[in-house]
Design goal:
six-stranded antiparallel β-barrel; six-stranded mixed sheet; alpha+beta; 4 helices
């Protein structure tokens, strides 16, 4: 064997070994990976419907009537005639001021009136006798005229006396301090034996009418203008048959007040500092659950509008805090859709922009999908626009 034959023999052996080693690699190169199956995606169908417009605002309970109990005469507080913190009725006597000085003043005024009445009777009889005598010149004309003038003066004095008697009677009645309205009375600020004065700064007690009560609701003027614009454009319908706008009250413990309030009117003056107006509603309070000054959350039933109810879990927000959701198009590909949310209603976002009827809205963990991703859609049980019962 020559050197050349030996070289080629060795070269052929090395090539054979190399081919054996490269065969698996070639086989791997020819094999293609199995296609990844499309992810299953649960969706609901967008279905526009009449949605009741509910406006969530803050409010404060205000009593319909508040009466500050004040003395109308001076004197010492003789007796308190009510239990603090209880309900009192109109004209019920609450306090008794020492009546003795005012009884004496009434007796004095009545005595002066009686004296002047007696004088008038004497003057009347005297004039009755002077009449015939005057015609016979048995009595001078001057005496007759003087007696007549005295009678007229006595009549005027009697009118003044009667006014004094009436004033003394009023002062005596004012020694009994009565309730001017029915309601719940506060603690007594003055105690027995205290000196009462008609010009004192503080009242002796306060009566608050607790049924019914006012609810003063604070509404931004921008929201009010938006509602009026939508109503004028026909996008919002008022509740048919409602005399007033109904208002639900949510108490501080997040429980719903059992009775519904009715909106009465809206103030025409805007608060320049807050840019809001006051709307006043009225509500019954038979159990005295609502107290003056209590803060509540109010839900106003403004009317009906065409809108979509988007499940809360379907709505996401970007870095700019703007809401968006994912739509599954006709090719079963995920698309991003920016929307405008108005408010929360139950567990749904109410929206009128960004969603079209018949859209397939992705609701099953939407953050795990990306726009452009192919999915296998599976319809959910609740169409968008229908609140589950």
């Amino acid at each position: 064997m020559t050197i050349t034959d030996s070289f080629f023999t060795k070269w052929h052996k090395e090539c054979a070994v190399l081919c054996v080693l490269l065969l698996p690699l070639a086989a791997c190169k020819e094999q293609k990976p199995a296609p990844k199956p499309s992810a299953k995606a649960n969706f609901v169908i967008a279905n526009p419907q009449d949605v009741e417009l509910l406006i969530d605002l803050t409010g404060r309970i205000t009593p319909m009537r508040v009466s500050e109990v004040r003395p109308q005469v001076n004197g010492y507080l003789y007796k308190r005639l009510f239990e603090e913190g209880t309900d009192v009725t109109k004209d019920q006597q609450l306090y008794q001021v020492d009546p003795r000085p005012y009884q004496a003043a009434l007796d004095n005024a009545q005595g002066k009136l009686n004296s002047d009445l007696a004088t008038l009777r004497a003057q009347t009889l005297k004039l009755k006798r002077y009449g015939p005598l005057k015609n016979m010149d048995a009595v001078s004309r001057q005496d007759y005229d003087d007696t007549l003038a005295a009678q007229e003066a006595t009549k005027a004095t009697i009118e003044s006396d009667r006014a004094s008697v009436r004033q003394a009677q009023l002062d005596l009645e004012y020694t009994g301090i009565n309730a001017t309205i029915s309601g719940r009375i506060s603690r007594s600020i003055q105690t027995q034996g205290a000196l009462m004065a008609t010009n004192q700064a503080n009242p002796v007690a306060i009566i608050t009418q607790l049924d019914p009560m006012f609810v003063d609701i604070i509404q931004p003027t921008a929201e009010q203008l938006r509602l009026r614009s939508r109503l004028a454009n026909g996008k919002l319908e008022t509740l048919r048959g409602a005399a007033h706008v109904p208002v639900d009250l949510i108490l501080e413990d997040n429980t719903r007040y059992p009775l519904q309030a009715n909106l009465l009117f809206t103030e025409v003056v805007t608060n320049q500092e807050t840019g809001s107006v006051i709307q006043r509603a009225i509500v019954r309070n038979p159990d005295k659950l609502l107290l003056s000054g209590m803060y509540v959350r109010t839900v106003m039933h403004e009317g009906m509008e065409k809108a979509f109810l988007i499940p809360q879990e379907a709505v996401m927000r970007g870095l700019d805090e703007k809401p968006y959701l994912y739509i599954i198009n006709k090719d079963n590909v995920v698309e991003r859709r920016d929307i405008e949310t108005q408010r929360m209603q139950e567990t749904f976002w109410v929206t009128t922009k960004g969603v079209n009827a018949g859209d397939k809205i992705l609701v099953s963990n939407p953050t795990s999908y990306r726009p452009g991703q192919k999915v296998q859609p599976e319809e959910g049980r609740t169409p968008v626009g229908v609140v589950p019962q």
